[in-house]
Amino acid sequence: MYTIRVEADFAAAHYLTEYHGKCERLHGHNYLVRAYASGSQLDKAGMLCDFGDLKGRLRDVCSTLDHISLNDVPAFASSPSAERIAHYIFDEMTKLDPSIPLTAVEVFETATSMARYEP
User: Fold this and answer.
1) CATH number for the domain that contains residue 18
2) Which residues pair with 105 in a beta bridge?
3) Would you list the DSSP string of 75-103?
4) Domain of residue 50, residue span
5) Among 7, 28, 38, 39, who pairs with 3 as Cys (CB 3.0-4.6 Å)?
6) pLDDT tens figures, 70-93
7) Number of domains, the chain
């Protein structure tokens, strides 16, 4: 099995409506996002898929989230947790290019706090 990974980032604000604590107040993060693609077959060039294609789709999705309030995105149902953000990015990347063998997306809110979505 082969796995490749690319990274992108975005900055956004959010608050968690179903959480009681400091994160229920408006705050922001500089998110780091990692996308993984995996498969057992390589193409004629010896690649699982082009890094540029995978990174391009990830950047396309992250750019729609950059410098916004994530609570304004209907998909997050007013509670944009890192888990929901990872799921959303995975789904949006898949819609942009279903041919990429995407297997997981990780969203880091900080260097030590990350959520991963893999179907």
Assistant:
1) 3.30.479.10
2) 35, 117
3) GGTT---HHHHHHHHHHHHHHH-TTS-EE
4) 2-117
5) 38
6) 999 999 877 999 999 999 999 999
7) 1
